[in-house]
Design a protein that fits this description.
Length: 368
């Protein structure tokens, strides 16, 4: 995607280091951070300098490569994997990428592991880009099938599931970018997404960088817009999807799904097959929900009229705050799950078909 007109990925290898956009500085400053150790990469994931399920997976893979660069022994690999696995509990892509790296590296002689780790991590990153392009095309087919309620198509999204949440291309926003490139007149309602405001800070920024018409709204405005006929579909990403089609995504997603269901509006979830977790039968009961620090609720960060960064408290001293980072949307509220294998129903059969389709495509590519 583009930053000031220049193509850029969210993460990349830079020699013996890993470079990535520091998302905690956006939208007011574009800063690139270089990590040269497992510790720094784990801190980046935990502090949400890198965030979004697919990007977390790629970052974890690069983190293993950094670890193998220093200590490629069995003990060294285990230490790197354990440190990275402890950073974020909800996004399944993290554990998926770590398993991929272990599977590739463990059978190799220790002397070959460091070089192989970089190759494997780069492959995970490149595969993510190709995956998101496929999601974009499958989602574009659904968008083309909408009957606009006005002269332009209006989509609503929550949190950030654009290219900043992936290596490049995005998940929920991949169909939006594909629609724009296809010449469709499209507009996006952007939920601010309290308490970390990923919609207002990140989604709005990247849509603006890419020239997509958009409007930031307060989280509680979505239902009103749906009732007023100003939303044609809701499209969000996911951090984990259970075997029955239940979807874990940023806190507040469930409420949007309820409103969409009540208003008869499609509610789509866009995610790579690596986000599907067939080991969790029931998402409402089984997906672990990360609880983050209460300070994210108590305090807001931004810039003042002079451009100086400020942090202000918005709650009374002494008030308690609870900060669950995700909620789970039951499969019955999800119109379709858009994967690189195609759009599938949010049920066990759909989840299985997406996983099987991914495997069939991978085998076909190997046979070419």
């Amino acid at each position: 995607m583009r930053v000031n007109g220049v193509p850029m990925r969210a993460i990349w290898r830079d020699g013996a280091r890993v470079a990535f956009i520091d998302q905690t500085r956006l939208p007011h400053r574009i800063a690139v951070v270089h990590a040269d150790s497992v510790t720094l990469m784990a801190q980046a994931i935990a502090s949400m300098q890198v965030r979004g399920a697919p990007l977390i997976g790629a970052a974890a893979a690069f983190g293993v490569a950094l670890g193998a660069q220093r200590d490629a022994s069995d003990e060294g690999l285990r230490a790197a994997v354990d440190a990275l696995a402890a950073t974020r509990p909800t996004a399944v892509n993290l554990q998926w990428a770590l398993r991929q790296m272990q599977t590739r590296l463990t059978p190799l002689p220790v002397a070959e592991r460091a070089a192989a780790a970089w190759v494997a991590a780069q492959q995970i990153a490149d595969d993510d880009v190709a995956t998101n392009a496929a999601i974009g095309q499958h989602g574009l087919e659904l968008i083309r099938g909408l009957q606009p309620r006005s002269s332009r198509l209006n989509l609503l999204t929550h949190c950030n599931a654009g290219w900043l949440a992936t290596v490049d291309g995005g998940t929920a926003l991949a169909p939006v970018y594909a629609a724009l490139d296809a010449g469709l007149d499209i507009h996006v309602w952007v939920d601010e997404t309290r308490p970390r405001n990923q919609g207002a800070a990140l989604t709005a920024w990247e849509l603006g960088q890419h020239g997509v018409p958009h409007t930031v709204i307060a989280d509680n405005a979505g239902g009103h817009l749906m009732q007023a006929g100003r939303v044609d579909a809701v499209i969000v990403g996911a951090d984990r999807i259970a075997a029955n089609g239940d979807v874990a995504n940023k806190i507040g997603t469930y409420l949007k799904a309820l409103a969409a269901h009540d208003c008869g509006i499609p509610f789509w979830v866009a995610a790579p097959v690596s986000t599907l977790d067939p080991l969790i039968a029931d998402g409402v009961a089984g997906i672990p929900i990360e609880t983050r620090h209460a300070d994210e609720v108590h305090w807001l960060s931004g810039v003042d009229t002079t451009g100086r960064k400020r942090r202000v408290r918005i709650t009374p001293e002494g008030s308690a705050a609870l900060n669950p980072a995700f909620d789970v949307t039951p499969a019955r509220l999800v119109s379709a799950i858009i994967t690189e294998s195609g759009a599938v129903p949010a049920n066990r059969e759909g989840v299985v078909s997406a996983i099987v389709g991914k495997g069939q495509r991978a085998r076909a590519n190997r046979d070419l």
